[in-house]
Inverse folding.
């Protein structure tokens, strides 16, 4: 099923302009619950309330206000906000090209696929291929949603992907985190490195991971929808006691006592898939 474009924009660098379209790159698979009235089971509604008039109001009755003092606001209409986002400043203006390794992932916010708009296919492919060959990403500015975004464009598969980013003043200072000043011994570091090697994989396979909590929750939802009574079950596996000695904890981890079960699937997804296929065949027979 083809993705539906969200909006149009134009990538500009130098005298080159590339018309593009935005597409949502990710989607949440979280399970969402509605709030119901416990007495009757009806879904409850949220309403906006004006304390001055002591009554509920609708969205059409509201406007945006920025507080400049207590109970004093500068107000804006939707039309005034939209006027600030002219076609000119909606352009994705590339300011520089850098290596992706220069940007820490803490700055990444959201991701969007960029596809070429009609007439922009050749220059779109030219930019994607040139950046891929140079191993560079583009840093750009983009105005949308009532703010100016800092974004990066990078080659992705056979096209481009855009990441909106946090500004430096939006990322909190790690120095404010209370980190205990502790000394570690060379033997402890060596054991930790051995454990890292044990859990290391040559490549990251996102298909080897799944949301097991969501799967358990959906099983319970399906069971309840069929009228089954859900009984809380205690965990089958006893919880291990806290290990105070870090050397002992590292040794036990290397012995396999602390390694997650899904590690085997992550390191050898092909064997896991083959085993699952064999199991399906046995069930079918």
């Amino acid at each position: 099923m083809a993705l539906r474009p969200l909006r149009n924009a134009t990538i500009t660098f130098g005298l080159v302009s590339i018309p593009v379209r935005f597409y949502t790159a990710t989607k949440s698979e979280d399970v969402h619950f509605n709030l119901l009235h416990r007495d009757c089971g009806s879904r409850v509604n949220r309403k906006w309330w004006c304390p001055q008039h002591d009554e509920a109001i609708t969205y059409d009755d509201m406007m945006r206000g920025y507080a400049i003092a207590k109970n004093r606001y500068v107000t804006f209409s939707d039309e005034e906000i939209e006027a600030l986002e002219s076609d000119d400043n909606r352009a994705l203006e590339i300011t520089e090209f850098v290596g992706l390794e220069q940007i820490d992932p803490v700055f990444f916010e959201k991701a969007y696929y960029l596809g070429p708009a009609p007439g922009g296919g050749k220059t779109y492919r030219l930019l994607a291929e040139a950046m891929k060959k140079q191993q560079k990403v583009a840093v750009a500015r983009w105005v949308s949603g009532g703010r100016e975004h800092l974004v990066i464009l990078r080659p992705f598969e056979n096209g481009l992907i855009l990441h909106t980013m946090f500004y430096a003043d939006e990322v909190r200072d790690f120095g404010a985190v209370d980190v205990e000043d502790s000394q570690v011994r060379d033997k402890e570091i060596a054991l930790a490195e051995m454990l890292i090697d044990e859990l290391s994989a040559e490549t990251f396979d996102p298909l080897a991971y799944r949301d097991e909590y969501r799967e358990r929750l959906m099983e319970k939802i399906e069971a309840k929808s069929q009228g089954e009574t859900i009984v809380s079950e205690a965990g089958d596996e006893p919880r291990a006691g806290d290990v105070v000695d870090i050397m002992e904890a590292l040794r036990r981890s290397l012995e396999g006592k602390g390694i997650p079960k899904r590690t085997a699937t992550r390191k050898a997804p092909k064997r896991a898939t083959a085993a699952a296929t064999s199991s399906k065949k046995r069930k079918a027979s």
The domain at 8-28+84-170 is CATH 2.40.290.10 (Ku70; Chain: A; Domain 2).
